[in-house]
Structures are given as C-alpha cells and as structure tokens.
Structure of Cysteine-rich receptor-like protein kinase 19:
Amino acid sequence: MSSLISFIFLFLFSSITASAQNTFYLYHNCSVTTTFSSNSTYSTNLKTLLSSLSSLNASSYSTGFQTATAGQAPDRVTGLFLCRVDVSSEVCRSCVTFAVNETLTRCPKDKEGVFYYEQCLLRYSNRNIVATLNTDGGMFMQSARNPLSVKQDQFRDLVLTPMNLAAVEAARSFKKWAVRKIDLNASQSLYGMVRCTPDLREQDCLDCLKIGINQVTYDKIGGRILLPSCASRYDNYAFYNESNVGTPQDSSPRPGKGGNSSVIIIAVVVPITVLFLLLVAVFSVRAKNKRTLNEKEPVAEDGNDITTAGSLQFDFKAIEAATNCFLPINKLGQGGFGEVYKGTLSSGLQVAVKRLSKTSGQGEKEFENEVVVVAKLQHRNLVKLLGYCLEGEEKILVYEFVPNKSLDHFLFDSTMKMKLDWTRRYKIIGGIARGILYLHQDSRLTIIHRDLKAGNILLDDDMNPKIADFGMARIFGMDQTEAMTRRVVGTYGYMSPEYAMYGQFSMKSDVYSFGVLVLEIISGMKNSSLYQMDESVGNLVTYTWRLWSNGSPSELVDPSFGDNYQTSEITRCIHIALLCVQEDAEDRPTMSSIVQMLTTSLIALAEPRPPGFFFRSKQEQAGPSIDSSTHCSVDEASITRVTPR
C-alpha cells in the first residue's frame, strides 16, 4: 500500500455494537492530488451522485451494496457504498445518509474520497472504482491490550490461520464476507471478520484481504485494517451481530427461540450424539493401540488445520525410544530450524526425525504449516511425512528416511562429487523439475516452496531426488499467481530479486531458485563460492552469464565429468537455467515448460535476458552492484516491511 498510514490507535470499543443506531466514524482519506472547484460540473455531478446513494428505496439498502455514476467524462463521478452484512437495512440507510452528509465537510475539494464507519463504507472517485481492486490509503488500527494467558508469539499463530481461512471463504462467497470464532483456551475466545466489496473478483478479494491480514502484527487483543476494497478485524468480543450472520465456524450453535426451537434442538442433539459415539469408537481404538506408533503412511484430509492430520501424531516417548533419546551418534545433520536424527521404529522402519530447536525461527505456525502441507503431498520426488509430535515445547516431524543425505553433501565435496556423473545429475535435474511442477500445478494445492536449495534436496538409494523442508512453503488460493510478505525467509543466493528485495513471491520465485540449483549441479560449485574467491566475479549466476555471453558455456562444466557428457545436452541445461534466473519474473518459463524443455530437445529455447543479482565488472557497471549472496547451506532469515503494489 503505497500510501498506507500505519500507526497504533487505542480502540474506543466499549460502547459499540453491531446493531448500534448511532453511526460511528472510523477514518477517511481524501485524494489531495485531484481537486475541483465549488461551481464546477464535477461538483454538481458529485452532489447528484451522493444524493442518489442516500435516497434509494428500502430494498436497495437491504442488499448492503450499491454503485452509481453521475455525469459524463471527464467530469463523471463513480460512487458506491458497502454496509456490513450483519446490520439491518435501516442501520445501513442511516449510516450511508450520515456519511453522505459528512463527505463535503471532510473532503470539500477532493475528487476522490473514501469514508470508513463502523457500519458502512462510502467511496467516490473521478475514476472507475467498480470491480477495481484498490489497497491505497488505508488505516491500521490496534488496541493497547496484550493477549491474556497466551504468549505473543503463539497468539499470532493462533489468529493468523483462521483469519486466512476466513479470507478464502469470503473471496469465494457471493457477499464477500466471512466471520470466525477463534478459541484461545477454555475461557477466552477471539472473533474475526473479513469483507470485500462484492463487485471484486474472487482473486482480487483474496489478494486484498491477504495484504490486510499480513499487515496486522497480531501482538495485541484487538486489531483491524481498513482498505478501500476490503477490511479485516479481530477482537475478544462479538463485535458483529451473530444472529444476523449465522454461527461462525469453530463456535458452538446457540439455541433459538419460538417455533423453531424443536428443529434447532434436533439439529443440535442428533449431530452431538453421533459425534459422541464416534469419539467413543476412536478413543477405544486409540486406547487399544496406546503403546503402538502409527507407522502406516497416513492420508490427510483437506483443510489447513493441524487437527485434520490427527492420525499423524506420534507419542514423544516412542520417538525418544526410536532415536535412543536423540543420541548424538544418530544425528544426521542440522538444518535452519533444528537437528535431524535417524531413528528406528518398533516395526523396524527407519525414519528421519526433525526436532525443532526451542530457540529456532520456526514457530508453531511454520511447524503446523509443514505438517499440513507435506501431509497432502504424494509424489516420488517429494519426501514423505510420516507423522509429527507436538508435546509441550517439543515440535517434531517424522519423515521417511532417505539414506544418501542431501544433494549438497555430494556436489560440494571434492571426493563425493565423483559419485555423481553427468547422467546421474541430469536425472536429478529432471526429478527436481517434476517435483516442483507437482507442487505448482499437479497437486490438489498450489504450493510455493520458497526455500529450494541443494541442502533441501535429499537423495534416496538410487540417487533419485526428493524435495524436503516445507516449513516456509505457502499454499496459494484458487487462481492466485503471486503474494507479498513482510517476512522474507529462505536462503539468499537462491532467492529471486523480487522476493529478496520486495517480499513478492510466486511460482516464478521457485523457478529462479531452480535455475540457480541447476547451475550448481552442472558446475559442482556453490552460487556464493565464487564471490568468496573473487569479488569481481560475483556469484555463479554472474559467472555463467559472462561465459554464455562470451560463447564459452562449456567452461562451467564440472571437470570431474571428464569427457563423459553430451555437449549439446549440458549446454541446453545451462540455457534453461539462464532462462530461469532472468531478472524479470515474467520472462522466466513455467515449470511445465521447463519439464518439456528438458525432455524434448525439439523445443526451441528463447534467448535469455540478463539475470537477477548480476554482478557487473567495472567495465560493465552502470550503477552499484548488489550483493545478496551468502553461504548456500545456512538459512539467513530476515524481517522486511514491504510496500505492496
């Protein structure tokens, strides 16, 4: 949001309810760059527009949303109002009328204005604002109350997932509205609400809500963000009228009154009885197998809550037994968020146990994310999640055991790399490409990995690659193509420019990482190693681009191959990698195109453009160079506040 005003504001919530007749002003924003004179045609059209919005018939207010226009270009005015779904038509009309009467006082000479009230929103502009996403000039408001009985880092995790789920629900609904009740513990609950103007496309609504939800810090009880096209809010009381919106998800049904009470009692009692019987059956089975781990490969249900993967849960004592109490000799390695141990279950099945560090950057949100994401994935080039353990401060993931460690263990060791000839490496490149394609396109979800690197590619007995470490993965909604984040996580050197610098990521971000990975596989060199040896060379991407430009790409080839490779095949892979690391994300190919390029030599390849993070020599420099490389096997996480476009 290029003009987002972000500050802390103490809420005056004590006397506000969803059914209040008194309109409560929140905020407004005027466009000071476009103004009109009091006697102009635009002024006349604006007054006509506002009058029409405040004098509609009763049925028009019952819908809660109306648009209107007045005049002809260049003095045409477009306007709309949006009332909350849970308010009555009379409250809606009262709010719109009140807002109309205040517009010329708050924005007397401005051609554009947006006015936020507790019960409604009013907008007008000299541009077409109907069915057009606008996230400029918003307001972030937050209470000063700390979460009660909940740690702040846990509080964000508890709130963020339900709010994101509500955003997806709202985007897909006709009214573009959704609410959630979030249970913190037995005595505390939060209530969430998200909404968009109903004229928005599903994807525009979801993008708007994601921007707003991600701007909220979630470190206080109570917060909201107001944007022209959408809004979101959470607080520890029901600030909306529950009876007018239905029972929010995760809350218990409330009995009704009058003639419908019998129907409601039946509707409540019968499901509860069935649920009780199911629970009895489940607990009976679990009691019988209390000391036995579930060692079968589970199938997770659809949904983004960790509870849907309940059958994946392991007992901590059983994991301790499998790893000999995490004996150091069983330690396989250490990743960005904790240590990985080899374990053997009581059935004899070997597993890899990822024990997250208590001080690691991966909190419960990332932990839950990795469980939910990986549990849904079934592909030969993705590591299988067998289960998890969440007890006290322990957060543990149990994966299939992949015996040959990670790709970087072979690539960057002068002795071990001899085990990877070009034929094996070419198969590894193809396997990684197919795994990413599955994540992006062929699975039930659209998943952006965000941390593809050699250390996260595991190799099985036959040296087949398996993509691992989904803690930073993001699930995209239907038709979503890109997203923004304030928290840039991953490994510099593998990050695309738009992600590292602006927090913008998409499938093309993974494509960039794949390109870097291919260059490392071909050369046997780390992307960052060249900079450590010679700052003028920069990184592997820069070095490759210079070789390509000079017509000598074969100099990149790992000398350990000898003459055992096809020049045309390896040159084509370098060409594909350079297409993947182009600076502009739109220029990079999709993973489906990449797989076709790798398998069919008849497909003509476009000429690559200069890559992102290109280190220019003194002769090449047209400006300062950018150094974003770091050691490729260490996660360097950072926090970045971005300004979404």
